Amino acid sequence: MKILVINDLLQGGGVEKLMYDIVMRFHDEHEITILTDKRDEAFEQIYPDNVGYLWHQKEYPKGRNRIERKLIYQRKKKEDKRFIEKIESMKFDVLLCMKEGWTMSNGIKFGKSIPKRIAWVHTDYSKSYYTWCAFQTQENEVKCMQMYHHVVCVSQVIVDSIKKVIGDPGNLVMQYNPLDKEEIIKKSLESVEDIQRSERPLFVTVGRLNIQKGYDVLLEVCNLLNAEGYQYDVWIVGGGESWNKYEVLHDLEDRIARYHLDNVYLLGHRDNPHKYVKQGDWFLSTSRYEGYSYVSQEAAIIGKALMLTECSGVMELLGSNENGIVMENSYKGIYYAMRDAIKDKAMSERYTGKVEIESPEYYGEERLKAIERLFTE
After folding, report:
1. CB atoms < 10 A from the CB of 44, how many?
2. DSSP string, 91-155
3. Could you report the per-residue pLDDT of 107-156, keeping only the tens digit for each?
């Protein structure tokens, strides 16, 4: 079976981790090709030789006037047409579109001729309906979703939010992301050599450097905590997104320098974030919105105490407030939770290992089999 996997990025956050897990599980059984917006030079270091790689975006000049812009637009349309013909000539059997919005739209644009099409949605539409920019109307988005055989939502909250915000396309299925428990625990035990933790309480957060993750709010909270004399450290593990990484990174770096946050460390992208999470007293998530946070589930497997802003999927993971700290999704909510944890160092011990990831539904193999059934049955 020939499978085309499409995403905007090759590496980054939870979506790319899901893509990686799917490809690595099935690349020996099926012929898989990955398609991203732009070429990522790290592909050969990430994926094995039997996985193909395509990218469709090219660098075009912006055009100095209306005539030049029109000519560039026409050239781009011709390039897209040739690229679609190339995809059609490769005769794929299955399309796996890893993300909502523009990626979902491109999935149909490039893979309309592919017999079996499956897409994923990772965002709570009731908290962030950003996909409107790709479709302009709810009706257009519903029609696009209906061109897929299944639209996989990574939590029940996302299923409900789609129905509420744009309507029910009739093909939504709920499927949690696969988690390789043994691999996560194994990687968490590797040594951390590039940074040494202190005796102060340590909060570790993992995620892309984008507005969704709320790191700007986190740094404002840290500025206040530092001004009040609290002693603690924060490690931020994650790189930037392709279209805004410099803007967001520079904003965070500027705030750290301006506020003299010597206890906040931007560690950048790490191939193995689990070993950094293992070092912390708390796994911290300050996200403005989530689907069903991949890294929070991984932190639970590692056994970390969880401190998460109230987003979709949080209560599905924690079950109740007794299993972790659910923060009000605000500046005040993050401030009070972090302050209380710093003041009471024993608090993290009370929440360590509270979330039991033991049920077979959490196992990577079981969830991957469920995904495979979507495109083989």
Report:
1. 11
2. --SEEEE--STHHHHHHHHHHTT-SEEEEEE-S-TTT--TTHHHHSSHHHHHHHHHTSSEEEESS
3. 999 999 999 999 999 988 988 898 999 999 999 999 999 999 999 998 88
Instruction: Give the H/E segment covering residue 5.
Output: strand 2-6
pLDDT in tens, 1-45: 999 999 998 887 788 889 999 999 999 999 999 999 989 999 999
What secondary structure, in 3-state letters, does 140-174 show? HHHHHHHCCCEEEECCHHHHHHHHHHCCCCCCEEE
Enumerate domains of the chain plus CATH numbers.
2-178+363-376 (3.40.50.2000), 181-351 (3.40.50.2000)
Q: What is the dihedral of CA 157, 160, 166, 172, to 10 degrees?
A: 100
156: Cα separation from own chain's centroid: 17
Written as six digits, the tokens of 216 are 């700007």
Q: Which two tokens stand for residue 80?
A: 């897209």
Give the Cβ contact number of residue 23 at 10 Å: 20
Tokens for 309? 């802003």
DSSP sequence for 187-245: HHTSPP-S----SS-EEEEE--BSGGGTHHHHHHHHHHHHHTT---EEEEE--B-TTTH
Beta strand pairing status for 282-285 and 264-268? Answer: unpaired
Q: Contact at 8 Å (CB) between 266 and 238?
A: no
- CA–CA separation, 6 vs 10, rounded Å? 9
Which residue in this structure is represented by tokens 């500027």? 254
Q: Phi first, then psi: give them for residue 122, nearest 5 degrees.
A: -115, 0
Angle at 163 between CA 161 and CA 169, to 5 degrees: 135
Provide the token pair at 211: 């507005």
3-class secondary structure, 331: helix
Type of residue numbered 80: D
